[in-house]
Specification:
CATH architecture of the largest domain: 2-Layer Sandwich
Strand content: 15-25%
Largest sheet: 5 strands, mixed
Radius of gyration: 20 Å
Number of strands: 10
Order of helices and strands: EEEHHEHEHEEEHHHHEHEHH
Number of helices: 11
């Protein structure tokens, strides 16, 4: 049995997280210190506050992860850390801790793309999952479709040309006066609304790319027009109709790609994977088509270090290590890996 211990570190936004993974899928600990209550009064994440809080939390969180895993730092074989995308100051806190520990312990360092990490969260929730499969990554900053051939070989089929789906959720929620984070609030409000009440436009984008800026603008114009006219709106109907449109766009592109590339497994990943309507729509569509559908547990949908450790483990198997010059790449995207 693989006994390699990987320490994962994640500080890309407002969660300070550390995890210990044994082998590729045996999660020994997963500690997350969230800053959501701290940023709620501002209606979103304040970068400087986030990075300062990471500095305070990073070592206690790492210590807690080691304690819960019942291991010592000297037992760790390698360290995997997020180097992008994310907030520059926040990323640098995790990178500094990871590089310092790797140097002091004389163990390898692995640089992990946060978005790739989201895909690998599924391997922890579903140990039976193996490539190849089609992955839909939907987060606050990115929306992408990826054909996974193997653990370290995949092709980017398409991504958002402007706003990501999660970004659109948060912006609409803010305008509607819903608390931060907006995505879960839209999902909750939509449960009591009529998803067919308002016919919002479906942006037409070629191939497997996405675009949500036009939809976002249409919803904002709808809300502003109603306000100017003094019309009373049913907020639940607006939330449900908007959410249905986003979900329909995501599901349509995903199922079309699965058909074209003859893939029998569909994997949902990223923070928006926690959206109940998206999960239900894809699950039911896969059942009708006889496809396998996978999505991570709720705790592994949002930012965490377990997914970073898992991605780092498979990178390490391929000899993909970083050195002490590793720096943060805030605008890092997903790229095809051969």
């Amino acid at each position: 049995m693989d006994k390699i211990l990987t320490l994962g570190i994640e500080t890309s936004c407002d969660e300070t997280a550390a995890a210990v993974l044994c082998g590729g899928r045996n999660l020994l600990s997963n500690v997350i210190s969230t800053q959501i209550p701290l940023h709620q009064k501002f209606g979103g994440v304040v970068p400087e506050i986030a990075s300062r809080k990471h500095i305070v939390n990073i070592m206690p969180v790492i210590d807690e992860a080691l304690t819960k895993a019942n291991v010592n730092l000297s037992d760790i074989n390698q360290i995997a850390v997020t180097f992008g995308p994310g907030l520059a100051g926040a990323l640098l806190v995790g990178l500094s801790a990871a590089k310092s520990l790797a140097y002091a312990l004389k163990i390898p360092l692995v640089a992990v793309n946060h978005l790739e990490g989201h895909i690998f969260a599924n391997f922890l929730s579903k140990p039976e999952l193996e490539p190849p499969f089609l992955a839909l990554v939907v987060s606050g900053g990115h929306t992408a479709l990826i054909h996974m051939f193997d653990y370290n070989k995949f092709e980017l089929l398409g991504q958002s040309r402007d706003d990501a789906a999660g970004e659109a959720f948060d912006k609409i929620a803010r305008v509607m006066g819903l608390p931060y984070p907006g995505g879960p609030e839209i999902d909750k409000l939509a449960k009591t609304g009529d998803a067919t009440a308002i016919d919002f436009p479906h942006p037409k984008v070629d191939g497997y790319d996405f675009s949500f800026s036009g939809l976002k603008s249409a919803v904002l114009n709808f809300l502003n027009t109603a306000q100017m006219k003094g019309d009373t709106l049913n907020a639940a109907d607006v939330a449900a109709s908007f959410q249905r449109t986003v979900v329909d766009i995501l599901a349509e592109k995903t199922l079309s790609a699965a058909d074209e590339f003859h893939l029998r497994k569909i994997v949902l990943a990223g923070g928006v994977a926690a959206n109940s309507s998206l999960e239900q729509t894809l699950r039911q569509a896969c059942e009708r088509r006889g496809l396998e559908f996978f999505y991570p547990s709720k705790i592994l949908c949002t930012d965490n270090a377990a997914m970073i450790a898992c991605r780092g483990y498979y990178q390490a198997l391929a000899g993909d290590f970083a050195d002490s010059t590793l720096n943060a790449v805030p605008n890092l995207g997903i790229r095809t890996r051969d």
